[in-house]
Amino acid sequence: MSSLPTSLTGASVPGAQDSGAATSGAGAQPSSSSPPTHQPPAPAAAHSVPSPTFSPLYQQIKALITRSLQSGEWKPGEMIPSEMELASRYKVSQGTVRKAIDELAAENLVARRQGKGTFVTTHHEDVVKFRFLRLVPDEGEPHYGASRVLECKRLRAPAEIARLLDIRTGDSVVQIRRVLTFSDESTVLDEIWLLGANFRGLTAEKLTEWKGPMYALFEAEFGTRMIRASEKIRAVAADETAATLLSVPVGSPLLSVERVSYTYGDRPVEVRRGLYVTTRHYYQNDLS
Amino acid sequence: MSSLPTSLTGASVPGAQDSGAATSGAGAQPSSSSPPTHQPPAPAAAHSVPSPTFSPLYQQIKALITRSLQSGEWKPGEMIPSEMELASRYKVSQGTVRKAIDELAAENLVARRQGKGTFVTTHHEDVVKFRFLRLVPDEGEPHYGASRVLECKRLRAPAEIARLLDIRTGDSVVQIRRVLTFSDESTVLDEIWLLGANFRGLTAEKLTEWKGPMYALFEAEFGTRMIRASEKIRAVAADETAATLLSVPVGSPLLSVERVSYTYGDRPVEVRRGLYVTTRHYYQNDLS
DNA sequence: TAGTGGTCTAGACCACGTG
DNA sequence: ACGTGGTCTAGACCACTAT
């Protein structure tokens, strides 16, 4: 392909060879004046067919940055290189890097702090924590309750869990059961399944010793970061087990929350079934 | 005040006189070359104190556009002027208008369509409809059920409704009660309170005759557009009334959804209390 | 004082939709 | 062919934070 090569794709822009990227770099070359270097050799190539799978430059940059996040080149809580640095690394303008980071910030993968830099988000921050804990007390501030682990064992995935985790029935998974307590009231009964491959060495002890959000542990100890989740919510009646563990009468209405959590690349890594007592708490949701 | 006047604030940029805007227009003047006009008279003013309430230009433009949306200058479904037109109207660059519209699009007030223009969103579109209807059937596609209006009357706001609507107890409100039916199953019992001042002339007949989402009626007939909403969700037991209307046993678990909806300027205009039967449907929510 | 992200501009070209 | 939004660049200046 006769594309205008070196200027943009020098630093291993992905797919620079395949159909997607070839036509995308056609952007602006300064009209005249400007520095002596960098003049494209043959503007004739501009009329090449607009390849069917067009991907903007900033999307490619975004994918590159995401890959570095995923590989752990920049760890949660750390600062990523400045826009200028990234621009020169990828051989694009600062504005293009900015647009890529804008989207990553909108997806909460990174957070910008004016005057300081751009930082990889982490489940240790309050902001992130309450994105995944939507239970709010009727009175008082949202807070993290105490977790009592009932069980943590390895077993083979039942069919439905396997389907949700996109693995095969019988593949290894870790099952956790726990109760969350707020102000001395048992409020949440969770049953959690995790991808076995990602959580070798996870034990009840580790869970019990850990202070703070479970996702922070997963991120720090197992290198698995929850990026987004999808929930299905229903009202159900408490069965005997739930009633006992949550100290409510059998048949009491409980909020059932079935969550599937995803990490980079939209790969599911967790299924979580929660039963919430909603007499003194409610599930907060904003439609916008 | 000795601000650089005519160039930016000519077309009635709001607050151009007050503290906020004076310092904000300081942006870029082209280094040299460029057209003969427009050279700022006194670059000395650049060192004026950075006013405590700094508001970027694009935020001011965004406020202006929002005002035009609110006033009905551009109605739901219509196209707003092109970026170039708005840029020349407000005497700013296209890029600044673009950033303003970017935010409005992110808030779903407008939608961009490449090659066509930017359009005011409307509750007639599918995309918007399902932002406010989160109930999804276990089997089959999401769809809009049939609405049976039980009641629609004017009355004085009880204390709690008044508090949520930010009005005084006893102020006029419209109360609606209705049942939503999906596939011949009564699924949702709604009790709705609307700001009386905004909904004069709303009757049970109008509601019954209207085919389509209620919010589309409100938008088309009453000029009140729901922009965002906040919901508090719990599990409750069906009382006799709900049990009868929804054809479930007394005490059955139901999803209770208390919604407050807001229009422009974050003014609350609706309180809605819904009871959902979640045996064949679930409430869908995405955390990200 | 230096470095970072944030704002603003101006101009070029591209992809898309419609005549 | 034309107008729309979308991408990309280059350069200037501003606001914030740290040293």
TrEMBL record, chains A, B:
Tell me which Pfam families the record gives: GntR (PF00392), UTRA (PF07702)
* Positions with biased composition (Polar residues): 1-10
Per UniProt, residues of the HTH gntR-type domain are 55-123
Q: Which stretches does the entry tag as region Disordered? A: 1-51
Keyword flag Transcription regulation: yes
Q: Which UniProt keywords apply?
A: DNA-binding, Transcription, Transcription regulation
Could you identify this protein by its name?
A: HTH gntR-type domain-containing protein
